[in-house]
């Protein structure tokens, strides 16, 4: 009870050009960040990250204009075939992370190269893609920091397997999501949730959230810890692939978004924006080895494309 997710100051990392592993300041940030992620079930807040606040608020504002359009317009932008192209809009209940609960969420996933955007919201593309690009830049740096934390012999190994973060032409299943949870209507039934319990399937997820709240992460004793909104922060969660790759050093954080109890808040929508990183499609991962990691942990090499596609198919019922 009463556990809190730590807030880690990463000293404007976004604007530091070179992550030099010999730099004591970088080592200090890497150790603080990595240790906190390790000790807190794969979940921390980052502050002083360097992504401009107005870039975040513009992405939220333009997304909101889209999500508040009539359903008939939004459905024009629905994903047609998630296996062929994950890009596009999903209405309430189109993606199901749980077999039992109704999930009251809408999303627009930004993915791959075959992209289309709502013509009704002319600035949607620029606003969301600017934040997407900033997230990729930060993702690459955070992955490098974590390679330092776990004392990999080849400090570039993680980045070399996730070239997609810095070279957008490298095929991967990385994606960016702008999410909208509509105001709660009167026909809500017991068990309804905004987003059901799951872990993300990739390496790291960056989550920006508005001030409504409801995001919770599971602690080591299966207790639910609220990820209370803190202005200017990004929440980082570790995904399945990173848990495997680091031999369980970083846990794939189970998380969910609940409907707030506060009646005033239920009458408002909630918005969030996420960047999901994963290794390149061509890479098969096998356990990383270093003095920090569990040497007895082993698994057959896994491919991110095969692994993540299975999860996508299940959640979209295809
Ligand atoms: O909206 C949020 O804060 C989290 C949503 C989420 O976990 C997801 O879409 O994977
Ligand atoms: Fe998630």
From TrEMBL:
Ranges where the Fe2OG dioxygenase domain occurs: 172-280
Keyword entries, A-Z: Iron, Metal-binding, Oxidoreductase
MF terms in GO: metal ion binding; oxidoreductase activity
Highest taxon in the source lineage: Eukaryota
Keyword hit for ATP-binding: no
Tagged with keyword Hydrolase: no
InterPro entries hit by this protein: DIOX_N, IPNS-like_FE2OG_OXY, Oxoglu/Fe-dep_dioxygenase_dom
Pfam family, one: DIOX_N
Family: Belongs to the iron/ascorbate-dependent oxidoreductase family.
Identification of the protein by name: Fe2OG dioxygenase domain-containing protein
Organism in which the protein naturally occurs: Allacma fusca
Lineage: Eukaryota, Metazoa, Ecdysozoa, Arthropoda, Hexapoda
């Amino acid at each position: 009870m009463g556990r809190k997710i730590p807030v880690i100051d990463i000293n404007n990392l976004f604007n530091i050009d070179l992550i030099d592993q010999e730099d004591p300041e970088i080592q200090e940030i890497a150790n603080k960040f990595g240790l906190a992620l390790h000790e807190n079930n794969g979940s921390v807040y980052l502050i002083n990250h360097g992504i401009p606040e107005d870039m975040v608020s513009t992405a939220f504002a333009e997304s909101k204009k889209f999500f508040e359009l009539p359903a008939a317009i939004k459905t024009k932008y629905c994903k047609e075939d998630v296996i062929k192209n994950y890009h596009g809009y999903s209405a309430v209940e189109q993606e199901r992370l749980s077999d039992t609960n109704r999930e009251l969420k809408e999303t627009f996933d930004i993915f791959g190269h075959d992209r289309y955007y709502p013509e009704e919201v002319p600035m949607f593309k620029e606003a969301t893609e600017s934040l997407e690009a900033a997230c990729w830049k930060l993702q690459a740096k955070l992955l490098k920091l974590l390679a330092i934390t776990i004392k990999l012999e080849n400090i570039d190994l993680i980045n070399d397997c996730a070239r997609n973060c810095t070279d957008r032409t490298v095929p991967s299943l990385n994606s960016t999501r702008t999410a909208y949870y509509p105001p709660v209507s009167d026909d809500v039934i017991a068990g309804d949730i905004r987003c059901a319990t799951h872990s993300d399937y990739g390496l790291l997820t960056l989550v920006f959230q508005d001030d409504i709240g409801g995001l919770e992460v599971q602690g080591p004793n299966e207790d639910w810890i609220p990820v209370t909104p803190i202005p200017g922060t990004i929440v980082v969660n570790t995904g399945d692939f990173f848990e495997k790759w680091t031999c369980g050093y970083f846990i794939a954080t189970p998380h969910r978004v609940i409907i707030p109890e506060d009646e005033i808040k239920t009458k408002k929508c909630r918005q969030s924006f996420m960047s999901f990183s994963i290794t390149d499609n061509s890479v098969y991962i096998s356990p990383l080895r270093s003095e920090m990691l569990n040497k007895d942990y082993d698994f057959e090499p896994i491919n991110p494309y095969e692994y993540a596609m299975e999860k996508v198919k299940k959640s979209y019922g295809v």
